[in-house]
Amino acid sequence: MHPVLVYTLSRIGLFVVSLGLLFLLGARGILLLALAFVVSGVASYVLLSKQRDAVSSKISNRLDQPKPTEGA
User: pLDDT tens digits for 13-61?
Assistant: First the structure.
């Protein structure tokens, strides 16, 4: 599967899990969303380093490829 898709789905999954856990702990409204955003961001920084490296490598490789010449 494409590394960017895996990383994006993993980030969304962490956000949803954080949202659910914080809801069960009693957070509501805008506080719930803000806390879930922060918690999922920290968790993704710690838990998704391999996926982030794969995305970075994919983007770097794409940028290093020579661009096709036009009109040739």
Answer: 999 999 999 999 999 999 999 999 999 999 999 999 999 999 999 888 8
Residue ranges making up the domain that contains 34: 3-59
Q: Is residue 9 part of a domain?
A: yes
Q: What is the DSSP track for the chain?
A: --HHHHHHHHHHHHHHHHHHHHHHTT--HHHHHHHHHHHHHHHHHHH-HHHHHHHHHHHHHHHHSPPPPTT-
User: Residue 70: inside a domain, yes or no?
Assistant: no
One-letter identity of residue 50: K
